[in-house]
Fold this protein.
Amino acid sequence: MSGDGTMTRSSTMSGERRLKLPAPNALVGGTLIAILLAAAGTGALWTPYDPLKLSFREKLVAPNALHWLGTDEFGRDVLSRLMAGAATSVWISILTVTLAVVMGTTIGLFSGYMRGWTDRVIMAFNDALLAFPGILLALGLLAVLGANKYGIIVALGIAYTPSVARVVRGTVLSLREREFIAASRVMGNGEGFTMLRHILPNCIAPLTVLATSMFGYVLLAESALSFLGLGVPPPAPTWGNMLAGSRPYIDQAAWLGIFPGLCISLTLLGINLLGDALRDKLDPRMRGSR
Amino acid sequence: MFRFALTRIGMALPTLLIVAVSVFVLIRLIPGDPAQLMLGDLATPASLADLRGRLGLDQSLPVQFGIWFGHVLHGDFGQSISSQQAVLPLILQRFAVSAQIVLVAVLLASLFAVPAGVIAAWKQDSSLDIGLVSAATLLLSIPTFWLGLLLLLFFGLKLGWLPVVGYVSIAENAKAGLLYLIMPILTLFLHEMGVILRMARASTLEVLRLDYITHARAKGLSESAVLWRHAFKNAFGPTWTLIGLVLGNLLGGIAVVETVFTIPGLGRLLVDAIFARDYPVIQGCMLFVAFTYVLVNLVIDLCYPVFDPRVTAQ
């Protein structure tokens, strides 16, 4: 009886598992990120108004039927600027994460595969760079590169490279002792081929988790740098520089400060929730530990 | 214990040296004459020649680094181009302002978030746990520069309870100084509470799943004894490390909060120096913050054996 009962219960459970909806954090996080990507995609091609067009007759207009999120001190439509800003922020974040992943993977693969002194010297420098808080290193690099869109991409890309290199190197060190790598060598494959064909694809899972959380850090860092005036220079809109521009008017036009901040917060919330869901999925031990 | 401390300090020294090399190389990457960069546009030929000699610019790059690092070790970080003040006293003065905000905020956040995280883990999946974790995730998703702006809008402008712009040193006027510090501290406190609570909860959950906890429960110990006497000590390690990282990161990232509340701290000094192309100050700030970051993490590591003696055995 009990055996039958267990069988029935477990088969019902597996049925439930197949039909199970995504976890709430994945659902909310995914929705928020989907909205961000849709807004960024649309903002790159179309906005309700020209985000750069000045209209002094309509300056500091509160949200209304024509301008859903109001206008700024130059009469520019806030919604249009937020959409264009989303496109800029997402584009900068994608390029930065790609740069950090490419550089970090190259360094991590090389260092982990070579081992010995090469590995020790590279990792000593890598760890020293990790000793800089990410944003500080980016600030220092911006002082050298100049504060603009490309300066931000390169500065943040370099600042986040050491974390990627560490993760990739760790994965390579554990992989290179495995049988399939020895088998590849025995088959007569060169070191480079083994590295690219057998080791690199196995680094993709940890890199995906890292890149997801890094996207959030980069977006936040980009907004913070733009807020400080070291990011994309005005009049081009980014959420950070819109927030910075709102400070003198915060008393009379609170919407100028509220909406860009809300956009950054909801995006970060989406990324955090998605990151939690991804970690739960990949590490069932931590399920529910959020 | 002594050997552990010695090993850990020995490990930090090469890191400090490479950090110094990185900062030196970073500034040397800027095209142009380093002496001209350090003295600015108003430099006279005589002062340029003098500085070139002092920096050893006619020598090889490693020798130049040696000369520069020798000056740094003697506390000579150069002179600010814009204010003509010595860089180190300027940094220390601004650091005192930033440090009081960061230390108080992180201390308060830890005092609230660590017990809250442990309790959330203990009551896993209860409504209390879900509420605490949701609040923490929300708090850490709000960037400090927006949170600060919202607090400023509400407590400063709408309610008029707290001063909006400016800074008064506590040493000059304790009451006014305190009023100016409340909002920046509250901003960092709320944000870091989210970060620390999640870590405290996650590390406690990890420990609560271990066999020795089941054993402690099986012995008939009360839940509070299991939680605080057995689980907490082992679970606190990762949170303690995170607190160190948070402290260091805040020193690098406090510029945004100082910008919101117009506080003359270290972060603002660095950002203003970047705008003014005041390279001696940029170099000094970067070196100072990175050194502080390494030292804070060193102190955190040295304190580790207090609650986890296994560390010294390793």
User: Anything to note?
Assistant: Confidence is low (pLDDT under 50) at residues 1-16 of chain A. Chain A touches chain B through 49 residues (CB under 8 Å). Residues 42-48+66-286 of chain A form a domain with the MetI-like fold fold (CATH 1.10.3720.10). The radius of gyration of chain A is 24 Å.
